[in-house]
């Protein structure tokens, strides 16, 4: 049965759905992938639609997400050309696991992050190698010390405050409201003592500019930086103001008396277990920048997509409201409620599957073999959670919004490694996943307990490529339940 690639794929399809995929099948499939690629870089097929000289620029420009989702290369890897540069794109779960976990030591950050490092600094998102590993241990140690119940309480407070300001029939820009909500939660978690008005306004404004413009800043050619009227000026200026405000807040905290019960004081107090040293103020600022950039955009986009999907799937919305009513009974959410909001979490899982990161970018830092292909040092590679999550061999009718797929054998625990990677994997896996999960569950339950969100008829929402695909705009009408 497994003697042909088709047979192997059919077996994977069936076994992924039933969760009975055996190691032997996986191994055989990897071997087939390796044989079909014959092991050399040149034998990795180019993605369809390549134009001489321009490569795949047109597809990437016009319909990047649909292009990614359409790629089902034999062997799980395909070459995408942007002019004269190539990126090797992984769309197969086994190879994604190899690149993110088992071979991660031979992969660094790559060109895009090099372009962002001078503006964003050297926090977890942009750093690599030993510095990244050391910083990651310290940041994780601080984040793990934040009491979960406290984070839930902060999230509830901000979500309640948000919906208390809505009026029945009012148009809410859900994308912006969710951005403000998750940023507000993160800022209170970091600076429990509160921020003065101007610092808070500056952080809100600059974080929005910097996180939304990061992709454009990263992929435009470096020579544009030197133009007297560079298109990056406003972006770089916002990043510089953000650094300035964060530096001032860290300095202020150093001089303040008393104990602070927040993430900033935890980050300041953690010590490297090997050297016993604390993080410098510059490193702390870079880590705060990394959290602001990664934390707000992904979580707010996921929340906005959740209200969008619920509005398009009334039965799922009814079930979710029923669950919220039963569990909360009209009172604000508590930490103990989170585990009982089971259908709400299934909805979030399904939203995050459908709207996850288009690309996780890497560059080989040493020769390495992935999917049987030998990569020399310095090759750009990308793993696409977006493409993996829309793979029909792994998820039946992958474009359909089906929260209940997470209740059955198809659910995440029984999927093969690398098949569900909304938070990445391995030593670069998201450090804020638990934070995000709490605030998103609280936000959805709190909004749905009181409000029904109806799409505004005058706007057709488009998915815009970003680190996490975001809606171009999401106006919705808030109707009181
Ligand atoms: C739905 C919400 C979120 C999603 C989908 C998400 C997704 C991701 C993904 C896919 C990565 C890995 C990137 C890679 O491998 O190149 C990542 C890394 C990261 N995330 Fe998140 N994230 C979310 C929320 C958050 C939050 C709330 C925070 C902060 C509190 C955060 C902080 C970070 C940081 C600092 C990294 C870099 C980790 C490293 O490289 O060691 N994220 N995130």
Can you put this structure into words, describing what you see?
Pfam families: p450 (PF00067). Heme binds at residue 430. Helix content is 52%, strand content 10%. The strands form four sheets. A five-stranded mixed beta sheet has the order 1-2-8-5-3, with helices on both faces. It has one domain (38-480): Cytochrome P450 (Cytochrome p450), CATH 1.10.630. The relative contact order is 0.17. The chain is built from 18 helices and twelve strands. The model is unreliable at 1-21 (pLDDT under 50). With 481 residues, the chain is an alpha+beta fold. The protein has helices at residues 5-18, 23-37, 57-62, 64-70, 93-102, 111-120, 129-144, 148-164, 174-190, 197-219, 233-255, 263-269, 281-312, 314-328, 335-338, 342-354, 385-389, 433-450; strands at 77-82, 85-90, 107-108, 171-173, 360-364, 368-370, 373-375, 380-383, 451-455, 463-464, 470-471, 475-480. It binds protoporphyrin IX containing FE. Protoporphyrin IX containing FE (HEM) binds at residues 124-125, 136, 290-291, 294-295, 298-299, 302, 352, 357, 360, 422-424, 428, 430-432, 435-436, 468.
CATH architecture classification name? Orthogonal Bundle
Show unreliable segments. Answer: 1-21
Bound molecules: protoporphyrin IX containing FE
Task: Report the sheet-strand fraction.
Answer: 5-15%
User: Which structural class best describes the helix and strand composition?
Assistant: alpha+beta
In CATH, the homologous superfamily goes by the name Cytochrome P450
């Amino acid at each position: 049965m497994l003697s042909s690639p088709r047979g192997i794929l059919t077996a994977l399809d069936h076994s992924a759905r039933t969760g009975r995929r055996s190691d032997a099948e996986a191994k055989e499939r990897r071997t087939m992938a390796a044989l079909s690629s014959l092991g050399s870089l040149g034998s990795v097929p180019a993605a369809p639609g390549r134009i001489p000289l321009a490569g795949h620029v047109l597809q990437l420009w016009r319909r990047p997400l649909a292009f990614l989702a359409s790629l089902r290369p034999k062997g799980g890897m395909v070459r995408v050309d942007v002019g004269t540069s190539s990126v090797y794109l992984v769309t197969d779960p086994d190879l994604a696991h190899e690149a993110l976990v088992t071979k991660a030591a031979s992969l660094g950050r790559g060109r895009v992050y090099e372009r962002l490092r001078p503006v964003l600094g050297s926090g977890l998102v942009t750093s690599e190698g030993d510095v990244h590993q050391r910083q990651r241990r310290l940041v994780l140690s601080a984040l793990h010390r934040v009491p979960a119940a406290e984070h839930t309480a902060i999230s509830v407070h901000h979500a309640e405050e948000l919906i208390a300001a809505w009026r029945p029939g009012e148009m809410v820009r859900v994308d912006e409201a969710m951005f403000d909500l998750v940023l507000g939660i993160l800022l209170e978690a970091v600076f429990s003592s509160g921020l003065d008005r101007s610092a808070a306004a500056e952080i809100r404004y600059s974080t929005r500019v910097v996180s939304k413009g990061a992709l454009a800043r990263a992929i435009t050619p470096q020579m544009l930086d030197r133009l007297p009227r560079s298109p990056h000026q406003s972006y770089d200026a916002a990043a510089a103001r953000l650094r300035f405000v964060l530096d001032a807040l860290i300095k202020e905290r150093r001089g303040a008396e008393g104990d602070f019960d927040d993430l900033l004081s935890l980050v300041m107090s953690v010590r490297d277990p090997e050297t016993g040293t604390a993080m410098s103020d510059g490193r702390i600022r870079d880590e705060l920048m990394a959290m602001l950039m990664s934390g707000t955009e992904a979580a707010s986009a996921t929340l906005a997509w959740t209200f969008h999907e619920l509005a398009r799937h009334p039965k799922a919305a009814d079930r979710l409201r029923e669950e919220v009513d039963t569990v909360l009974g009209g009172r604000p959410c508590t930490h103990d409620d989170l585990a009982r909001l089971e259908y709400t979490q299934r909805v979030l899982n399904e939203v995050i599957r459908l709207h996850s990161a288009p690309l996780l970018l890497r560059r080989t830092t040493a020769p390495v073999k992935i999917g049987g292909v030998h990569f020399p040092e310095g090759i750009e590679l990308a793993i696409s959670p977006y493409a993996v999550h829309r793979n029909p061999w792994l998820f039946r009718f992958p474009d359909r919004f089906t929260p209940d797929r997470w209740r059955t054998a198809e659910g995440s625990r029984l999927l093969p490694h690398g098949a569900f990677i909304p938070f990445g994997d391995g030593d670069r896996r998201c450090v804020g996943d638990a934070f995000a999960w709490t605030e998103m569950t609280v936000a959805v339950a709190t909004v749905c307990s009181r409000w029904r969100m109806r799409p505004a008829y005058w706007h057709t929402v488009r998915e815009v490529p970003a680190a996490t695909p975001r809606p171009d705009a999401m106006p919705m009408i808030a109707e009181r339940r």
